[in-house]
Amino acid sequence: MKLIPLFVILPLAAAFLISLLGKQKRFFCDIASASITFILFVISLATIFNINSQILPMIYKVGGWLPPMGLPLVVDNLTAFMLLIVNFIAFIVSLYSINYMEKFTAKLKFYTLFLLMLGGMNGVLISGDIFNLYVFFELASIASYALVAYGNKAEELEAAFKYMAMGAVGSLFILLGIAFLYSNASTLNMADLSQVLSAQGTNKAVTFVGILFILGFGIKTAIVPFHAWLADAYPAAPAPISAMLAGVVTKSLGIYSIVRIFFNIFGVNPSFLNLLMFLGALSIIVGGLLALGQTDTKRMFAYSSISQVGYIILGLGIGTPLGILGALFHLFNHSMFKSLLFLNSGAIEYATGTRNLEKLGGLREKMPVTANTSLIASMAVSGIPPFNGFFSKLLIIFACIKSNHIGYGIWAIVGSVLTISYFMKFQKNAFFGPLPKELKDAKEVPFLMQASMIILSIVCLLGGMVMLPKISNYFTEPAKTVLVQGKDYSNLIFKVLNEK
Q1: Which residue from 352, 354, 262, 368 is spatially nearest to 313, judged by alpha carbons?
Q2: Which residue, among 227, 281, 282, has the nearest Cα to 250 in the 3D structure?
Q3: With the CA atoms of 310, 312, 314 and 318 taken in that order, what torsion angle do they form, in degrees rounded to the nearest 10?
């Protein structure tokens, strides 16, 4: 329990030390970032096993103040699941950045912002107070705005401005929702909020707050029709940040916040679930169609992210245990294969100087590691067996059929066909065919970049094993149970406090 604050303290302290000492020691920022993210990953693993052994949530009372007056940090099975994903991807991205960021100036500023963003994401996940969730949300968001503009080119600054403007609108909706919620319930503690709102029952104020939250967190999640910023921000950011944005930022800031608030605080209702299913199916198809026409690899992957997040939202919207399980499993899988794809895109650009598929070709012989890992990622995201994406999509489609939403199941299958189409285009244009004369000197990327891609490709290849009973009992099943239990979340929190 005493390790919980380290999820925020360690990255924030490392960000401060890097900004202070980074100029004096050349490799200090590389070592510090990789070390801190590895430590956080190890703590995340320990947290998963610890929380499963004691069943009940872990609560750290900041300053010793008891909820609802104090500011609790809470870790339950869903939080532990998300922490593991976020900190694992952060560690992989840190390794990749050691070589990749050499071509940029002011490397220490990159690591400072990167660790601030990580600290904010971890803070969102462990916060037991909705206003502090918002504070950490803004910390991560502001750092991500700066990281999108890191290259300082005109298109990068434009993309960062659009991202910041859309993010500011989303943040305003969220802050207004929190203000209305506080005026109605007189508390901001999540567990206390759940009990107060249960006693009050559904009213117009809570419905209005729910709409504000859907708008605010929907923008951060980039589901259709709130996706306008994403197609510019992902390509503009350096490849490691694109991997973080696609792999974990939209998950921890958007999807996690939505499910925590609507499943565990407000309690789900049929209208909300129907809206999620519609937005999820819409995102699957619109994102897939937009990706199909792209020639820029990172823009293609950005639209693909919209489509794949649609599967997660669709699974959550089904609302059944099987649908939620499929959604959480696909969230895990998407974090792995989409992070890998953006790292692959960064490797291609690092070696060739371009991301334009019309200027690429024949790279399989020159860059075998990048080619093979990107093939694994492409098959995983397309849902080809035996890769991890196949199993999570299959669960979501089965959940649609079992809950008599056959139409949504068909749309999910159509989305997979679209995904296969544009990833076949990516593979053909980038790695097969004749090698352009301009790329005859291309060569494989440095070792740490290769190692990062290989690790993620192994996870994509073996990711289906997460659903094996003994493994699932530590990862996806307990996280699913938190959402299935709904508003019982508050009872568990107060049970832990009463026992102390």
Answers
A1: 262
A2: 227
A3: 180
Q: What pLDDT score does 212 carry? A: 92
What is the pLDDT, as a whole number, of residue 498? 65
CA distance 190 to 188: 6
**For 264-304, what is each residue's pLDDT tens digit?**
888 888 888 999 999 999 999 999 999 988 889 999 999 99
Tally of CB atoms within 10 A around 487: 17
For residue 31, which phi and psi values (nearest 5 degrees)? -65, -45
**Helices and strands (H, E) in the chain, number of each type:** 22, 2
Count other C-beta atoms under 10 Å from residue 152's C-beta.
11
> Does residue 337 fall inside a structural domain?
yes
Q: How many CB atoms lie within 10 A of CB 203?
A: 11
Rounded to the nearest integer, the mean pLDDT of the chain is 88
Strands, DSSP E only, in 56-162?
Answer: 58-62, 71-75
Give the tokens for residue 364.
């399989």
> Could you give the CA distance from residue 377 to residue 103 in angstroms, rounded to a whole number?
26
DSSP line for 322-383: HHHHHHHHHHHHHHHHHHHHHHHHHHHHHHHS--BGGG---HHHH-HHHHHHHHHHHHHHHT
Enumerate the H helices of 222-362 as residue ranges.
230-236, 239-244, 256-261, 270-292, 297-318, 321-352
Length of the chain measured in residues: 500
DSSP letters of 65-89? PPTTTSEEEEE-HHHHHHHHHHHHH
Q: Choose among 345, 307, 320: nearest CA to 431.
A: 345
Compute the average pLDDT of residues 259-263: 89
Domain-located, residue 357: yes
From 106-120, 129-143, 220-234, 480-494, the region with the lowest mean pLDDT = 480-494
Q: To which residue do tokens 């910023």 refer?
A: 229
What is the average per-residue pLDDT within 19-25? 78
In a domain, 200, yes or no: no
Select from 41, 61, 55 the least CA-distant residue to 129.
Answer: 61
Within 10 A of 211 (CB to CB), how many other CB atoms are there? 13
The better pLDDT of the pair 433, 310 is held by 310
Instruction: Report the number of distinct structural domains present in the chain.
Output: 1
Whether residue 50 has pLDDT greater than 60 = yes
pLDDT digits (tens, 9 = 90+) for 230-240: 888 888 888 89
Range of the domain at 425: 272-467
Residue 221 located in a structural domain = no
Nearest to 336, CA basis, from 282, 391, 289, 297? 391
